[in-house]
Amino acid sequence: xxxxxxxxxxxxxxxxxLGVVLVNQPPMATAELAKQEEPTNLVHIDVTYDPGTKxxxxxxxxxxxxxQAGAPQFEDSVWQVLSLLNNxxxxxxxxxxxxxxxxxxxxxxxxxxxxxEILLSLVNAYIELGEIDMERAEAWLDKADIEISLRKTKELxxxxxxxxxxxxxxxxxxxxxxxxxxxxxxxxxxxETLALVDAANVENxxxxxxxxxxxxxxxxxxxxxxxxxxxxxxVLDKAFGLNLGDLTxxxxxxxxxxxxVGDADPLTGECVP
Length: 273
Fold this sequence. Notes:
Number of strands: 14
Number of domains: 2
Low-confidence stretches: 1-5, 14-37
Distance between the termini: 33 Å
């Protein structure tokens, strides 16, 4: 079973229910959603692999969990290459992409605006990525700190590290279809949920998640701050068979989302803990 979409649906349901129930509550002092001068979008992904068993682990998810989620299996030729390396790291920071193999720097590539456009055109020639809003992409990449590490070991990979200041743009179409940053997700809100949103006249939501602390705005109105606890959620997971999986990475992360309904303009801005 793919556990990630289930969790995403749960979070969206929590957001929408909070918005419907609390939309008429008076605003309270909470952590502000404001634009930082230098927002940082940090994503660190650890990957471990074992050429002997031809299995791999990503971001704290085991090989079995990845298999159930439909993760791809690699060809023998890929495993042969991986078996020759002890570790490899890709770092994207400032205006550079750095590649390391066995703890030694192998390659540095310029990563400024023009370089990104050239790289995108090359990739798009082989993989059709669709239309990409380059201005929006620059907002994400200008202050990005991305690291992907590969390690040859039987150990489970380290949990994902995610700290995104820039709001992720989410759109709910009139038929309930969900898209993220302009890309369709294949997921939709149920007719019942859409009816609740319409009844409450919800036009937009701003959510900031910081390791369980939730700051939420509905139609520009700040709602009371809420805190979700991993231990309690684990109890509900077992009691109701939600199949949420290991939530350690989620509760160790911070990110924000701006959700709009219908043809409203996308929400922009950053989350400030």
